[in-house]
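Record passed on underneath.
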Amino acid sequence: MTGHGQEAVAGKLGLGAAVAAMVLSAACWGFATVMSKGALSAFSPALLVSLQLGASVVFLWSAVGVSRQGLRFDRHTRLAALSGVLEPGLAYVFGTFGLLLTTAGNASLIATTEPLLIALLAWLLFREKVGLPTLLAILAAMAGVAIVTGAHGAGSGFSPAGDLLVILGTVFAALYVVASSRLVAKVDPLVLAALQQSVGLIFVLVFLFVWVSPQAIGKDLAAAEAGMLALALLSGIVQYALAFWLYLIGLKRLPASTAALFLTLTPVFGIGGAAFFLGEAVTPWQAIGTLIIIASVAVASQVSRR
């Protein structure tokens, strides 16, 4: 085989691995949603995320140690750590406060715009071109997510302040993806995830102790069963450590606009996990939305291969 042919094969394998990593990251986020739903019966949202992120940070740094990755605190490393302010830092804080003031339906509808925001920001900040097929796939996938989440009926609890906060949280999440798409070219995905989530954990802990009294935190922890605590920690490893690590691996190979599309698979895995583990019924509308999302992601993947 010629050198050119070997490079072509290597490129295809690299792209296939990136797509697989993206799909697996969406599966982690989707299934972890089901796990978090169970853990929320024992912990408040702020405490649960703190436990999840704590478990994730311990897991990620342990993995960094086992893999013997070198860590230099240069300019790229500092920027990588600061990007954790965007997500899970600001994205979580603004999103949580917004959700307290608006409806879950409105928040879901706003969240569907994240892939389009990522494509727009990638173009504005880095002049990353988005082809028409990819743009149409993003719009179709957004419609599919709106159908799957039931956001088409979300207009009945309009709150300007709450919706604005959720919008800001979504913008910060989109900025995180765009920034990470550049950082992951200089910093290993595992180290990048560990740095980002360490800073994000600091943000969330500050938010937790401002929003919830230490007495209430101690009371919740003391009353929690060992099984629920284990579920919270395990869901954190799946939802944050594995999901973000895999997503950054895929982001190293795929453009930010294409990578954004794979986020729309998250509710598909979430609904599938709820149906399998919790026995929740899947409505015909959800099935239609799922097919639209899968078709959109498949089209975008084929465009990337070409």
Observations:
- Residues 1-13, 152-156 have pLDDT under 50 and may be disordered.
- The chain has 14 helices and no strands.
- The CA atoms of residues 108 and 151 lie 6 Å apart.
